[in-house]
Design brief:
9 helices, alpha+beta, 4-stranded mixed β-sheet, two-stranded antiparallel ribbon
């Protein structure tokens, strides 16, 4: 936060999210937008953590943290880089999608057609980007055993 105050450059919200409540990494809708999978901008920085869920607001923005079990949380993180060169923890595109799926409470295990509808119509994922997802990353999430039925539908 001092960096932005000194240089006048905008704050790196994902890095701030990593430091406000940790351990955590940016994921879900914010990460999907960051990676270019969804067309919408996202107003709050969404993250996941093995700690209890929490919402924080300050002068920089809104930050939401969703709980995931530690054995699942540790899979699929990578370093993102902001325009000013600062690095932060963010979910890979495939992990952000997996996180979104396992945290969507209203979704029961879906048929292949229903999953495609959820991805393309509800989430508005870019179909071209969807085809580029790293299937090994989805398999790594599946291998944790957490919500296997929901995650398995992504591979059908």
């Amino acid at each position: 936060m001092k960096h932005s105050a000194v240089t006048g450059s905008p704050a790196c919200l994902p890095l701030i999210a990593n430091h406000l409540y940790g351990p955590s990494y940016v994921s879900l809708d914010f990460a999907l937008a960051w990676h270019g999978l969804i067309p919408e901008g996202v107003a709050e920085v969404t993250s996941v953590t093995p700690k209890p869920s929490r919402r924080l607001s300050n002068g920089l923005g809104r930050f939401t943290y969703h709980h995931l079990p530690l054995h699942y949380y540790t899979v699929g993180q990578e370093l993102g880089q902001a325009a000013d060169g600062l690095s932060f923890l963010i979910a890979s595109p495939a992990k952000a999608l997996c996180d979104r799926l396992v945290l969507s409470r209203q979704l029961a295990p879906l048929s292949r057609g229903a999953m495609r509808q959820w991805l393309l119509e509800d989430l508005r994922l870019d179909p071209d980007q969807l085809g580029l997802l790293n299937l090994a990353a989805i398999r790594a999430c599946l291998a944790t055993g957490y919500k296997r039925r929901q995650l398995g539908t992504l591979l059908t």
